[in-house]
Design goal:
Blueprint lengths: L4 H10 L26 E5 L2 E4 L4 E4 L2 H4 L8 H11 L10 H13 L5 E5 L2 H16 L3 E5 L6 H4 L10 H4 L2 E3 L5 H10 L4 E6 L11 H11 L3 E5 L11 H6 L5 E4 L10 E5 L1 H4 L15 H16 L2 H22 L6 E6 L2 E6 L7 H14 L2 E2 L3 E3 L6 H23 L3 H4 L13
Parallel strand pairs: 3-13, 5-6, 5-7, 7-8, 8-9
Antiparallel strand pairs: 1-2, 2-3, 4-10, 9-10, 11-12, 12-14
Helix pairs in contact: 3-12, 4-12, 8-9, 13-15, 14-15
Length: 428
């Protein structure tokens, strides 16, 4: 049985100065059950990561899907190392700012102009501010997860500290629920600045759904924003908008844009983006060169090699294997697999008497023990190999019967070695 003693001891130290011991909710003990989980890592390479106790894992989290090529990709590392010798931040713009913007405009259908931030939340908040300035309206319709800023997080259960007046301007609709979106837009005609959504997450978009959202946004004079923080430079070189053939007015990017280096982008129609000359969206580190050369190296590699095609092929083999194991172990009542092959989900269902969070706790306990770092999604990178996929499928083959026994046979108390996770908030 693996030991996590050093991680747990360091967590106590970290929590004295850092709330939850982590800068990111999704990397904290809210998501990793105490007693059976690592909490700190020391290094990573390719598809592998090592924790503070020296345990090795194949990583299917990939820093929350921000690592697309793999850890320490040699092309990205070489570009960053070379730029580090020349400087990181300067008193005037560096040419790489324009060069990366040009690459995005070349690759992304909607992109005519680009502005950089550091986190996905920067980009989505910038897109919403831009849409409000362009339309002179305040309300926003949202679908999916769009970051920590007030305009979005106020619509979730994690809304403490967000003024009620701000919360009341954000209206949520469910993915695939075109009727709900139409009702929302009709309920406040002429007041919506934007419709923002992840063009795909857990479920495939139904035929005509994304085009239907576009038509509704246009009919109501709202700016259509695709949040491609995850889908961009993962689903295809031009993002989900290229894959599905629907071009939004604006789109936001992050995560895989620079293979894990901190940079995000707002991109879109020139007439809207030109308002960035008046709308205040400005960062001291917006032109930080290490992240931008990492983005350039990442995009150049995506253009040069069949990176995303290889990821999708390997991910499809994984999805097919998981579906077969669910059938083999008669777990269809409890589990399902969905999503794009490059970012797929093992869906754990609530059943009477057993929360999905309890089932997920047992799943994580057993995955970590078998050398798999995952949180219920399969965030693949170019560095994942066929043996890595086989290792995960072998782990699921062993774990699915345990999940079935825990939930359907009432043996959860015997199998869990820790307290179950509690819900943070659901976003998808």
């Amino acid at each position: 049985m693996r030991s996590y003693r050093k991680s747990e001891e360091y967590l106590k130290r970290a929590e004295r100065t850092v709330p939850l011991g982590s800068q990111t909710f999704s990397k904290s003990r809210t998501q990793f059950p105490y007693g059976v989980s690592p909490y700190f890592v020391t290094h990573a390479r390719g598809s592998r990561i090592w924790d503070l106790d020296g345990n090795e894992y194949v990583d299917f989290i990939n820093s929350l899907a921000s690592v697309t090529l793999g850890y320490q990709d040699p092309d990205v590392t070489a570009a960053v190392r070379e730029q580090l010798e020349l400087g990181v931040i300067f008193s005037l713009p560096h040419p790489v700012e324009a060069e990366v913007a040009e690459l995005i405009c070349e690759m992304v259908p909607c992109a005519e102009m680009v502005r950089f931030g550091k986190n996905g939340s920067d980009a989505t908040a910038g897109a919403i501010r831009l849409a409000r300035a362009y339309t002179g309206r305040d309300r926003v319709a949202v679908c999916g997860y769009h970051g920590w800023q007030d305009w979005y997080i106020g619509s979730t259960a994690r809304n403490r500290g967000v003024p009620r007046a701000v919360r009341e301007l954000t209206h949520k609709f469910g993915f695939l629920d075109i009727v709900a979106l139409e009702q929302i837009l009709d309920s406040h005609k002429g007041e919506f600045a934007a419709v923002i959504l992840e063009p795909m997450n857990v479920a495939d978009p139904a035929p005509g759904f994304i085009a239907g959202v576009q038509e509704l946004a246009r009919r109501h004079g709202a700016v259509l924003v695709f949040d491609e923080t995850i889908t961009g430079f993962r689903y295809s070189n031009g993002g989900a908008q290229q894959l599905f053939g629907v071009t939004p007015d604006l789109a936001t990017f992050g995560k895989g844009l620079a293979n894990g280096f901190p940079v995000s982008a707002v991109a879109g129609r020139r007439d809207i983006m030109k308002l960035m000359e008046e709308v205040f969206f400005s960062f001291t580190f917006g032109g930080e060169t290490l992240s931008l050369v990492a983005a350039r190296a990442t995009m150049q590699k995506l253009k040069r090699l069949p990176v995303l095609a290889d990821i999708a092929a390997r991910g499809q083999r994984l999805k097919d294997g998981v579906a077969a194991l669910i059938r083999r172990h008669d777990c269809g009542e409890l589990l399902a697999v969905s999503g794009h092959p490059s970012w797929s989900f093992l869906v754990v269902r609530d059943l009477e008497g057993v929360s999905s969070f309890t089932t997920k706790t047992l799943l994580l306990q057993e995955l970590f023990e078998r050398g798999i770092l995952a949180l219920g999604t399969h965030n693949l990178s170019y560095a994942h190999s066929d043996p890595d996929i086989d290792l995960l499928l072998t782990a699921y083959d062993q774990i699915f019967p345990l999940l079935r026994a825990g939930v359907l046979d009432g043996k959860m108390g015997q199998l869990l070695r820790c307290e179950p996770l509690q819900p943070l908030f659901r976003v998808r």
